[in-house]
Design a protein that fits this description.
Layout lengths: L3 H15 L6 E4 L14 E7 L2 E6 L3 E6 L5 E6 L5 H5 L3 E6 L3 E6 L3 E6 L4 H4 L13 H9 L6 H6 L10 H9 L13 H21 L30 E5 L6 E5 L29
Antiparallel strand pairs: 1-6, 2-3, 3-4, 4-8, 5-7, 6-7, 9-10
Length: about 280
C-alpha cells in the first residue's frame, strides 16, 4: 500500500495537471455516486492527508479517494486517453480538462463530500507526519495513550499518526534501535518522540527522492524493509520478518533481532529464506 510520501507525490501530480482548470468531463464508477457536482467545476487544489487524497473544486465539493493496495492515479494529455482505457473495468474515476486527464485506477475508496465536511472522511486521522504544521506533541500523546499496545501496531494505526505503512514503520524502528514488538509503555516519551521525528525525516527524504529511500542511496534504499534473509547493513546478522497485529489488520515487518533487541515473541527463530525478487518491491 502506498504510504504518505507516495500519496503526497500523487497529490502534487494531480494538482499540477488540474489546478485552476475546468473539468470538462467527470465520471465516477463507484456505487451510485454521481459525478455531476464535478462536471464543469474548476479544481482549486489537490492535497494529501496521510494516505488520503482530497480534490477540492470551486463548488464546495471534495472528491476523496484512497488508493488502498492496488489503486493508483495517472495523468496524461486528454487527447491520449484511449477508448480501451475508458472501457476498462479497473477505471474508477476519470477527470479531464481541455489539456490534461486524471485516471483513477483500482481505487480502494471514493467519496464525494462537501468540502466543509471533509472531517467525515479524514477526521479520524492522527497528525499527518508530512504536514508542515505537524503537532508532534499530539502524535507522541496518541502513541502513548495505549501503553500495552505493541509499538509497531501503534505506529501503523492511522488514528495515532497518519501516513505510515510497513516501510516507514520498519525503517525508523531499525534506525532507532527499537524492537517493533515492544509495548509502548516500556518506552520513554523521548524515545517515542525520536521515532516520530525519524519517521517524518524519512518520509520527507523519500518525497524529495521521488521514491521510498531510508539509506540515502536509491540503489540500496532500505535497511531492513523487504530484506528478509539478507545481512543487516549495520551488524551483518540476518534480517528477519514477522507479523504484527491481529487479522484482518495483520501486517508484516522486517527487522534485525541483533540490532533491535531480539526476536519477536512469535518468531520461532527458524531460518528464513531470502525474499524472491518479485516480492522485494518497496511498497508499504
Amino acid at each position: 500500500m502506498p504510504e504518505g510520501d507516495a500519496v503526497l507525490l500523487a497529490a502534487r501530480r494531480l494538482h499540477r495537471a488540474l489546478a485552476g482548470e475546468v473539468l470538462r468531463h467527470a465520471e465516477i464508477r463507484w456505487g451510485d455516486l454521481d459525478a455531476t457536482p464535478l462536471q464543469g467545476a474548476t479544481t482549486l487544489e489537490v492535497v494529501s492527508v496521510g494516505k488520503h487524497l482530497l480534490h477540492r473544486v470551486d463548488r464546495g465539493v471534495t472528491l476523496h479517494t484512497h488508493l488502498r493496495m492496488e489503486g493508483r492515479w495517472r495523468t496524461s494529455p486528454t487527447a491520449r486517453v484511449t477508448a480501451a482505457q475508458r472501457r476498462s473495468p479497473k477505471l474508477r474515476v476519470l477527470l479531464a480538462t481541455g489539456q490534461h486527464a486524471a485516471l483513477g485506477w483500482q481505487l480502494g475508496m471514493v467519496d464525494l463530500v462537501p468540502t466543509a465536511h471533509e472531517h467525515r472522511v479524514v477526521g479520524h486521522l492522527g497528525p499527518d507526519l508530512l504536514s508542515p504544521g505537524l503537532d508532534e506533541d499530539l502524535a507522541v500523546a496518541n502513541l502513548a495513550a495505549q501503553p500495552d499496545r505493541l509499538l509497531a501496531e501503534a505506529l501503523l494505526d492511522q488514528r495515532n499518526v497518519a501516513g505510515l505503512g510497513t516501510i516507514f514503520a520498519s525503517e525508523p524502528l531499525f534506525l532507532e534501535g527499537l524492537n517493533p514488538w515492544t509495548a509502548v509503555g516500556e518506552l520513554s516519551q523521548e524515545q517515542l518522540r525520536g521515532v516520530v521525528r525519524r519517521a517524518r525525516r524519512l518520509l520527507r527524504q523519500s518525497v524529495a527522492s521521488g521514491r521510498p529511500v531510508s539509506t540515502g542511496d536509491s540503489r540500496e534504499p532500505a535497511y531492513v524493509f523487504a530484506r528478509r534473509g539478507l545481512p543487516c547493513r549495520r551488524c551483518g546478522g540476518m534480517v528477519r520478518m514477522a507479523t504484527v497485529g491481529e487479522p484482518p489488520q495483520q501486517r508484516v515487518l522486517c527487522y534485525c533481532p541483533t540490532c533491535q533487541g531480539g526476536l519477536a515473541a512469535h518468531d520461532d527463530g527458524r531460518p528464513q529464506g531470502r525474499l524472491r525478487p518479485t516480492t522485494t518491491k518497496l511498497r508499504g
